[in-house]
Q: What sequence folds into this?
């Protein structure tokens, strides 16, 4: 299966109407919550107490699956540690069965995290996309503009942000404990 044309958004292919992801993000009732609650039809492939997985209605490959937390959470960083653990435990559990069910060689696992990344529905969802060598889908690194950056400076900025978050979290725990 050739996935090359998937770099063009669906709205730019086949003459479909375009939409503004930001306004969709801000105004759309949560479609994923409607699926999780059973109000919208889906092709459910897995569920447990904390997560649900179903086939994407706009698949980029056969078996393209979305794994979501049952609780409405917009971004990965908004998950509690317990929710994150449950979500990634479910990912670990279903990854090989999804790949094997469609006879794929590999998978690409991805999360669009926030409207700037292309996330159209404000509910965390992990894409599991079965892949075959030569399918034309490319690698995750092809998503960005690329180019050289100062890795030392970037690493230092990230480390400072992580350290400040860790300190805030520690201070918060001491106040509540």
A:
């Amino acid at each position: 299966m050739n996935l090359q044309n998937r770099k063009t958004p669906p709205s730019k292919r086949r003459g479909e109407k375009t939409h503004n992801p930001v306004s969709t993000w801000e105004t759309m009732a949560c479609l994923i919550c409607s699926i999780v609650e059973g109000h919208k039809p889906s092709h459910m492939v897995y569920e447990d107490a904390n997560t649900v997985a179903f086939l994407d209605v706009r698949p980029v490959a056969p078996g393209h699956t979305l794994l979501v937390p049952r609780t409405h959470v917009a971004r990965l960083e908004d998950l509690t540690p317990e929710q994150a653990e449950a979500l990634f435990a479910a990912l670990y559990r279903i990854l090989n069965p999804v790949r094997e069910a469609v006879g794929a060689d590999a998978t690409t696992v991805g999360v669009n995290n926030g409207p700037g990344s292309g996330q159209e529905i404000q509910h965390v969802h992990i894409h599991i996309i079965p892949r075959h060598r030569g399918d034309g889908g490319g690698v995750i690194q092809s998503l960005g503009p690329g180019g050289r950056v100062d890795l030392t400076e970037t690493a230092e900025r990230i480390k400072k942000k992580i350290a400040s978050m860790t300190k805030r979290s520690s201070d918060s725990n001491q106040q509540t404990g």
